[in-house]
Write a structure and sequence with these properties.
This protein starts with a helix and ends in a 6-residue tail after the last helix. Helices cover 63% and strands 1% of the residues. The chain is built from 13 helices and 2 strands, in the order αααααααααααββαα. By secondary structure, the chain is an all-alpha fold. The chain is globular. Strands 1-2 form a two-stranded antiparallel sheet. The protein folds into 2 domains: 93 residues, no CATH class; 239 residues, no CATH class.
Length: 365
């Protein structure tokens, strides 16, 4: 996608200015997409009285047409309903800005910083563009899920089920959209002689591999989150994770595969605790949806994938193999058990802290 835009629209622009121009184009595109997400979220709302974007959500009066134009409507003029003087929702404009920023940052990380470029996964140039477009679809779904979960504490099946279908079909049809293969064992690599072990069927049957990779990610994401949901019910005496969180992680898994899922799950509680305590101080809310933190952790893992996957802790003895290598943990049962244990432990700690969090008195005005 980025290559197509750069060739067709800015072919005469100096190369040193191309990244900045592409960032600006994707910001504007993301803002327009954010407008569409706002429209979609309102359509999915459980509030039967929710008005469309073209009307005031309080009285239903029609809004000036120019206030519906993406980006232009950010101008701070006539930001109140002419009929009832109700301010237009700032959250919707902020979502458009945030979506534009997300599109631009993701381009910068993936294309300029090459955050998904790792050994053993080397798609063709054309497939890299399709993979980026595929991941932008995931970003849109994550933005929609975050927006409606913050507003109504739910993640509709229209988002997650649609995402699962797109994730699985896209991976199967294209065949080379993975950021890491279904199976790759770095424990068998010999420095200077041979790389990691990758089963031959993965190399010979890319479309079948795409199907297996995506379906496995879907099942691991949904299955582990379902298990964590049961654990949270025992520890808290109530469900801290909704079924929408389960389907959300299944959808994410269908786009990223099973290995990133095992890194997203322990990272999400950290995102939840940080944002949760800040929100408690600012708003006094004692309940916050968990879906947005799963989305935030997904973005962190995707944008930092190269550095996370290739992370190593060097040995204390010069010339010895690294004491710990993240990618090697995924190649044997013991390593996988360690990762799953870390994910489960992180969630348990978060749930225990959540008990304390909800017990903090809030000054009421």
């Amino acid at each position: 996608m980025a290559q197509f835009i750069s060739e067709q629209l800015v072919s005469n622009v100096p190369q040193d200015q191309l990244p900045l121009i592409m960032t600006g184009i994707l910001f504007l595109l993301g803002a327009v997409v954010g407008f569409g997400v706002n429209f979609w979220v309102r359509r999915m709302s459980l509030n039967s009285e929710m008005q469309p974007l073209s009307r005031c959500k309080e009285c239903g009066a029609r809004i000036s047409r120019w206030k519906l134009i993406p980006i232009v409507r950010w101008i701070p003029l006539q930001n109140r309903c002419r009929n009832c003087a109700t301010p237009f929702p700032r959250s919707e404009i902020l979502l458009e800005v945030a979506t534009g920023g997300l599109f631009a940052i993701y381009y910068f990380m993936v294309v300029q910083q090459r955050s998904l470029e790792i050994p053993s996964v080397a798609p063709s140039a054309a497939m890299l563009e399709w993979r980026m477009l595929y991941q932008y679809v995931l970003l849109i779904l994550l933005v929609a899920a975050t927006s409606i979960d913050f507003r109504e504490y739910l993640i509709p099946d229209q988002i997650t089920m649609t995402g699962m279908i797109v994730g699985v079909l896209g991976a199967t049809i294209a065949g080379h959209l993975q950021i890491i293969h279904f199976w790759v064992d770095w424990n068998q690599a010999i420095p200077g002689l041979s790389g990691p072990y990758i089963p031959e069927w993965i190399k010979e049957h890319s479309h079948w591999h795409g199907l297996v990779w995506s379906l496995t990610g879907l099942m691991v994401g949904g299955g582990l989150t379902w298990g964590l949901r049961l654990v949270s019910s025992v520890l808290l005496g109530q469900e801290a994770l909704g079924f929408g969180d389960v389907t959300l992680m299944a959808m994410i898994g269908s786009f990223v595969g099973w290995q990133p899922i095992l890194l997203i799950l322990p990272l999400a509680p950290l995102c939840g605790l940080l944002i949760g305590f800040l929100s408690r101080i600012v708003t006094g809310k004692t309940y916050l949806p968990y879906g947005p933190y799963l989305c935030a952790a997904t973005l962190i893992v995707l944008m930092g994938w190269k550095w996370i996957w290739l992370a190593e802790w060097p040995a204390t003895i010069p010339g010895a193999p690294p004491e710990l290598s993240i990618r090697k943990l995924f190649g044997d049962a013991t390593g996988l058990a360690i990762i799953v244990g870390i994910a489960l432990g992180a969630l348990i700690v978060m749930l225990l802290l959540l008990r304390i969090y909800r017990a903090i008195p809030v000054k009421r005005h």
